[in-house]
## 1
Amino acid sequence: MRLDRLRLREIRLPLREPFRISSGEMAERQILLCELTDADGATVMSECVAGETPNYTPETIDTAWHAIEAWVAPRLLGVELAHPRDAHAVLEKNFRGHNMAKAAVEMGMWGLESVRRGVPLAELVGGTRVRVPVGISLGIQKAPELLVAKAEAAVAQGYKKVKIKVEPGRDVAFVEAVRRALPDAHLMADANNAYTLADLPVLQALDGLGLMMIEQPLAWDDLVRHATLQRALRTPVCLDESITSLERAEDMVALGSGRIINIKPGRVGGFTASIAIHDYCQSQGIPVWCGGMFESGVGRAYNVALASLPNFSLPGDLSPSSRYWTRDVVDPEWTMTPEGEVIVPRTAPGLGITPDVERIAALTVRTVELRA
Ligand code: OSB
Ligand code: MG
């Protein structure tokens, strides 16, 4: 396969309601979409999950735009690859970081190859699942009652897991209130780095609430302190921000820093790294699940295809389009069954959705076309 043209677009898409995590709030997404075209005219879209500000990882949509234009695109445009899995090595050689920028194009190469071969993307990645269980991620609320109402509504909708964003001062009482209202629900907390080991008493209080896991309580790039914490908790620690490559997943296991991994393909540089982490975790008895970054329906297609791999055994942050947007930019929009599952597209070639190109053009605030 050979990438011939790469168009970048920034679109603005307002969220139905603002989403707050411990490290920041967003009300409107700035989304970087890539349009990849090969020498025969086959084309596909992919999405960069970098945020508006560097509060999750160091990358932002602007750094990713620059990295793709300056370094990612020149390495792949006009280059013949036997398989999309080979793009990862091309992008890693003497090119540090910028995982979300790399992933946007690397995943697009997988998407493009699925279109070229006429197979569903899930099949190309080796996925076996027909449906993937879905969880919801609830932002930080002003009061426990508001959170309880949202959690109850989510369980009634069929969600198989409720993830509660926490921060100091909005943690134990909030999670406890949800636990009281929903004694049997699969609940978890995600702190996005809001704590340190000095907060051990708070984290130990969460430990008593029967959570499936506590996600990334400590620093965004930490493994050592999480290992100390995991030894003090019964609840599994799940790492998100800290896992940026296969090697970091291996380090997590070697150090005992956590027992579950949230795989976001954007965070680890794309599908090749995601599959390697998935396979490694499977060999170690570590369950994984697919995280989300408030992607549009384009990015969602990649996450759902990846999450069809067998060791994605826990519910993923793969909410339907209507949870985020008044109207998504793909057709059909993503939905969830009453049983809380997303159906993996397995009948048509490619992503299983069609980007609404007219609407995307209308939402575009900047664009550039790159050629070999
Ligand atoms: O930590 O998982 C996270 C969104 C933005 C940044 C970080 C995170 C999240 C989510 C969103 O939890 C989950 C979703 O896309 O539904
Ligand atoms: Mg997280």
## 2
Amino acid sequence: MFPLTRPAPLPPALAGLERTAVMGICNVTPDSFSDGGRAFTPGAAVTHATGLVAAGADLIDVGGESTRPGVAERVPEAEERRRVLPVVAELAGRGIPVSVDTMRASVAWAAVQAGAVVINDVSGGLADPDMLSVMAETGVVSVLMHWRGPSATMDQADVYDDVLAQVKAELATRVQAALAAGVKPGAIVLDPGLGFAKAGRNNWPLLTGLDHLAELGYPLLVGASRKRFLAEVSALGQGQAPPAGRDAATAAVTALVAAAGVWCVRVHEAAANAAAVHLAQVWRAYHS
Ligand code: PMM
């Protein structure tokens, strides 16, 4: 177990949390892999997000671009803004902490102006040369995920000798780039990027080796929710379980990584994951 660390510049409701935060996913897309289409209009997205908060989510991650392996096409910037910004503004206006899931610096900037308190860039600042400057200028909590290229081709980038050591080293490189761009160390959160350029077997060393990633000195975010590698464990039917049927496995992972001390889990379903986080909080309290 490593200490539960959290990034500094957060709204009081999140900064005061003594447990892993639950980040509810609100994909405003017609094509995300597990929930695409469910929250495609702004009104439906807000309803979905407030339902996640009612079920126990501490913050909501709003995204307008699918990252589905192999097939995701880039969404034009104007369309991404049209999807994301009204939802960010509405949720922030209701006092809900909002994260924006985007690889575009301009969208991240506009979302922070609309009230977002976290920038979540799955490319770790690699997809848009201006992203790290926006992270630095806004000063908000910034998630740098391990990434080896766009979703359309990332499955081919899944080549590792030692996945844990290489992901750790590549995340360290992103941290150096962020610090060089002026991002404050206290704003940085790291994410191993489960399922991104990682075949099923490559996700497990990352999940079980989180203490090694924590040695980098930054809070961690884990996004295992409903991902394909969960369905590959035999009890779930050798890859047959549909994404929403992976919620039980997701909650099990949440309990384990929350007990290990991650800052945040990014999940599609809130109730079971919030319960898992609370259980892990008790577990940590009794752990000597
Ligand atoms: N996974 C997805 C999208 N955004 N962001 C972070 N930080 N970590 C992740 O693992 C992550 C992410 C893909 O899942 P989705 O299509 O269900 O949102």
## 3
Amino acid sequence: MKYQIIIYLFLLLSVNDLTAQSKSEPFEGVPGWLETQEKRLAWFQEARFGVFIHWGLYSAAGGVFKGETYPQHYAEWIQTWGKIPSKQYTEHLKPKFTLQDFDPKQWARLVRKSGAKYMVLTSRHHEGFSLFNSDQPFALHNEVTGTANLSPDGRDLYREIMEAFQQEGLKTGAYYSLLDWQHPDSYEAFQLNPNPTGHVPDHERYKDYMYGQIKELANNYDALDVLWADFSSKEHEGESWGTKRILTDLIKWQPNILINNRFWNGLENKNGDIGTPEKYVPPTGISGTNWEVNHTMNESYGYSAHDQNWKSFPQIMRLLVETVSKGGNFLLNVGPDGNGKIPDQAVEILERVGKWMSVNGESIYGTQASPFRKLDWGYCTIKGDKLYLHVFDIPQGNVINVPLKNAVKSLYEMDSKDGSMDVVPQEMGLGISVPTFSLEDGPKVLVMEVEGALEVEESVAQALSDGRIVLSADNADIHTTHGMKISGARHDFKRPNALAGWTHTDDKVSWRVKIQRPGRYDVLIQHLPLSTTGGTVVFHTDAGKVTYSFEGKEGKSFEEVKMGTIEIPQKAIGEPFISFVLEATTIDGNGLPEISAVSLVPTEN
Ligand code: GLC
């Protein structure tokens, strides 16, 4: 129960406040930041792909402490999951932080070969232990743990790692935790530690400590390309951390530095240089700011021996390409263990990404967001006159629809430069026949140049190779005056995007569909059952309609239920598209349940 409460609080802090807007002025009004922002961001916008490294004492626990396994995601939080005082934590874990397999040059080579152009390393996480050698008196010696510095005598692990990456030509950034579970003057002081003397935390001292450590990171090492602060809440943001003083000096110490937005509250707040969606891709990107999705290969950022829920290589590629196609950067996390070994599964993923990037990198680096709202076969990125079409799902007939009015000037396969693909005439947009490929090698990239300025058409959904037509939330035209919107995947990357906030019967959604096969289709509606929601929906087209009433039951995940069967007549084939509409006739409770898709599945007869 306790864990649940903690997880809940944590999710509340870090997720539900996504779009919270901080009251602070941009960069706290500190001169030097806004004026130089465009120039400072240039390399970041070119890079598009980076690697995050979570490494600290929690890596030596790997999700297990003194024989007890902590099933929670976010293994780097184990100290909190287990309510472990800092002293016991360090005594137990330091001997397990052996460095036996630690080879920063090998890490750096692996990451460079993955195609990543930058790396962000946890210089210290919430546990309060630093990979860098801090000269702050508390870090050198304290009553709580002895020392907050992790490196063995005569070494500086942070320096060794950063230098190895810099030698491979990568930009390097430091993740720096604003939370500190160890320091007696932090906002979290004594949440985990005893306080026998009744010490009253002095936050001014903690601010000095953070300022001093950030000064060390910015001045004692060759480069600091990003300062990745983590994280704020409504109660503690901006000036609570002494941000004004930090920013005033940081830009002098490192005039080209970028900072993320987590000195302020909310993952999508627009302060700082970089928005930081965590473990989800914002369904429609984030307008008006630069942003970077940080995502995990399994569930946890820090190493966890029992977290074997690894994403497949194609799933990682989807997250990477989807993010870039929406205008963001992708920061893919790796969690080496306490011996310094990167898990084999992570090595394999990075190697496979690297193989794909070595051929297709041009379709990622320096590209911009797709001009199309949604494509049902994959994603598009753009650079100069070129459109990069990333095909993930091959539609029926192997022909993808590119919703453009323009004529094609050139078209070739990225991996072979073969330009022999057919452009198939279609009533709406361009039809392109895609050569067969295996998604196990990553998405197929086609490069297209068209005549004149881009003229985008409304996109039209078509059947997948099994004949099923999926009308997804992403692909819907939303007609709302009451704030219906697409909600995103959040902490479960398999959670589909869904229509949320459907509270009024005069709101509706519609889709345009190119029919390739007339006949009978079962209509299935995928939704997230919730007892506080309910209502009746009608799905209709000229050919007929089906209805469904949500019972307001409770469910854990999205479910598909059958609404009925619909007959699509022969004459529909002749139409450039037909429209389907989903409307609500009644709405109960807090609104309709979230709806992720309506699928039309051809029946046998
Ligand atoms: C979170 C977590 C943390 C993780 C990070 C990555 O706020 O507290 O464990 O390092 O953000 O986005």
